[in-house]
């Protein structure tokens, strides 16, 4: 599992990257306005500003989103890399380093070449820093929605053992209440915006529930007795975390798999 410093960074960067990718794609689909998307991306954050995109520095989110739509951007691709799993990232470079450190990033698929974005909170604002990426450099592909859904189903079956009383009772005395919240859907978070397929919504919910199980089970070595058993358990949790993370990425990127003639009319 990632170390404490990386986990703390990812707690802020990952949900911000996910919200930006989802709601910016909804703007490009014409399902919501830039102003609405800007509000949903920002949420309870301080103001978001975007540096380094074409059209000028220090742009507000609505202005940046409107300009991306006007520039004919195809979509925004979410990446959630982790140590040892740089899935979706290009080769070595400043964007790759920043995304790995933060645990998340967004790739803007533009006509003139891709641009990488990573958020950083400083001086009372969240700033999205942009880097131009080589247009023809190959990068590891994120799994498609169908592939990620199948892997997630397998991972959920494997996670069943981690939900047993023997395992979780030793992990946390509040495990029962946490599991109740999980079953009731209180840990599912916000859904995807309009324009996304229903299957992506379902995959995202299941991915978040599996991630919650992993976080709960990672609190201790559970029912493991020996160091070898504890190591095997941690390795199993790492595989489950990876499946959940890949599925979350696939859900957010699902609209990039849709044909262009499936787009809705822009919202003015």
Walk me through what this model shows.
By secondary structure, this protein is of the alpha+beta class. It folds into two domains: 4-140, no CATH class; 145-252. The protein has nine helices and six strands. The chain has a six-stranded mixed beta sheet, sandwiched between helices. It is globular, with a radius of gyration of 19 Å.
The proportion of residues in beta strands is 5-15%
SSE string, helices as H and strands as E: HHEEHEHEEEHHHHH
N-end to C-end Cα span: 44 Å
For the biggest β-sheet, the strand order reads 2-1-6-5-4-3
| Number of extended strands | 6
Determine the number of helices (DSSP H or I, runs of at least 4 residues).
9
What class, by secondary structure content? alpha+beta
The gyration radius over C-alpha positions equals 19 Å
Shape annotation: globular
Main sheet characteristics = 6 strands, mixed
Low-confidence stretches: 1-10, 260-268
Mean pLDDT: 80
Helix share, percent: 40-55%
Q: How many domains, in number, for the residues?
A: 2
